[in-house]
UniProtKB/TrEMBL annotation:
CDD domains named among the record's database cross-references: NAT_SF
Pfam families per the UniProt record, alphabetical: Acetyltransf_1 (PF00583)
Species, as recorded: Stylosanthes scabra
Span of domain N-acetyltransferase: 3-182
Signal sequence coordinates: none
The protein, known as: N-acetyltransferase hls1
InterPro entries: Acyl_CoA_acyltransferase, GNAT_dom, Plant_NAT
Name of the gene: HLS1_1
């Protein structure tokens, strides 16, 4: 029988897809494993992207594999702003850099049933998805995988023509039983959606992977808000002048981030923990709940399904920007506690200076995730950028919460 790759049909493929997901997430014996519950919606992790598709591989009447993909327009570089009658470039000391956009595709959730591996099914799924990307004008395709997932890395780099591109860090912090105390010297202001969009476009539009439709991200129901941290004596909420004036005369230090509610999309669960580890974790929660003033780093109940909030759009400036980020992360922790989440997560460039302000547990985090990229055609991209796959890494990246 021949393997057929086709578009996912939610009316008849759901059970088959869920069966493959379950069998692919069987963790190693006596080791902790992370399981994902998509709550019966196989496309939930891409549903909020501008354009998305899910493909399945079928052998006879059995679903034996699947993958998901989405397409959006993002920043791939920057160029000097041109002006004047002769389209002359502005003076480099005063010119505001302008973003160069490209149409970027993302592959995630590639799964092949263990019984049908080494048959080229994963390769067929990737090729079919890339063909859809090209038909929809995507210039580049990328994937994210663990840096020790050698099977996935080899498939994409050796057989599909992808190159290792960026190595961001996934930082995970548990939500404790107690509230986190934030600095009394920092004021946190919630921006309305219009001001948040303006601030991001004015300040961060040249950041690598910045989505051109940032307004769609911020206006999504899953986005819980954008929060600005400033010195307490600099601004009050009723004194907020708007993004343009704020950036024209900012305080000596400030930071911003937004929060995305992944809890309403899917949940996670840690399996494979020993009885001793479970008892220890429960004990820390009991003590933390009874004696909250001790501020013990209690371990949430990761051994049943839990949700998390994702912090995105992290940025800021000034000598105390790290302190401002730390205050924002404390605020985000308390917000996640109110919403019943088990963790707060963010993903930043491994070179991001502000990551020093992000509290996280090393045992839960991934210091070096791996993004691989491929150019889908040769007639794309702005001349000032050239081939994005060969560009050196920037200090910051913008991680789109719609693809978490």
């Amino acid at each position: 029988m021949e393997v057929v790759v086709r578009v996912f049909n939610p009316n008849k493929d759901r059970e088959g897809v869920e069966a493959v997901e379950r069998i692919c997430e069987v963790g190693p014996r006596d080791k902790l494993s992370l399981f994902t519950d998509l709550r019966g919606d196989p496309v939930c992790r891409i549903r909020h992207s501008p354009t998305f598709l899910m493909l399945v591989a079928e052998l006879g009447n059995e679903i034996v594999g699947m993958t998901r993909g989405c397409i959006k327009t993002v920043t791939c570089g920057k160029k000097a702003h041109k002006h004047g009658k002769n389209n002359q470039a502005a003076d480099s000391t005063t010119a505001k850099p302008m973003p160069v956009y490209t149409k970027l595709a993302y592959i995630l959730g590639l799964r092949v049933s263990p019984l049908y591996r080494r048959m080229g099914i994963g390769l067929k799924l990737v090729w079919a998805m890339e063909e859809w990307f090209r038909e929809n004008g995507a210039e580049y395709s990328y994937i994210a995988t663990e840096n020790d997932n050698f099977a996935s890395i080899n498939l994409f780099t050796d057989k599909c023509g992808y190159s290792k591109f960026r190595t961001p860090s996934i930082l995970v912090n548990p939500v404790y039983e107690h509230r986190v105390k934030t600095s009394s010297k920092v004021r946190i202001i919630k921006l309305d959606q219009r001001d948040a969009e303006s601030l991001y476009r004015l300040k961060f539009s040249t950041t690598e992977f910045f989505p051109r439709d940032i307004d769609s991200v911020l206006n999504n129901n899953l986005s819980l808000g954008t929060f600005l941290a400033v010195p307490k004596d600099s601004y009050r909420p009723d004194m907020w002048p708007g993004p343009t004036q704020f950036l024209a005369s900012p305080p000596h230090s400030w930071a911003v981030l937004s929060v995305w509610n992944c809890k309403d999309v899917f949940t996670l669960e840690v399996r494979g923990a020993s009885r001793v580890k479970r008892v220890l974790a429960k004990t820390t929660r009991v003590v933390d709940r009874a004696l909250p003033w001790l501020r013990l780093p209690s371990i949430p109940n990761f051994f049943r399904p839990f949700g998390f909030h994702f912090m995105y759009g992290l940025g800021g400036e000034g000598p105390e920007a790290v302190k401002m980020v730390r205050a924002l992360c404390g605020f985000a922790h308390n917000l996640a506690k109110e919403k019943g989440c088990g963790a707060v997560v963010t993903e930043v460039s491994s070179r991001e200076p502000l990551r020093l302000g992000v509290p996280h547990w090393k045992m839960l985090s991934c210091e070096e995730d791996l993004w691989c990229i491929k150019r889908l055609g040769e007639d794309y991209s702005d001349g000032s950028v050239g081939d994005w796959t060969k560009s050196p890494p920037e200090f910051s990246i913008f991680v789109d919460p719609r693809e978490v």
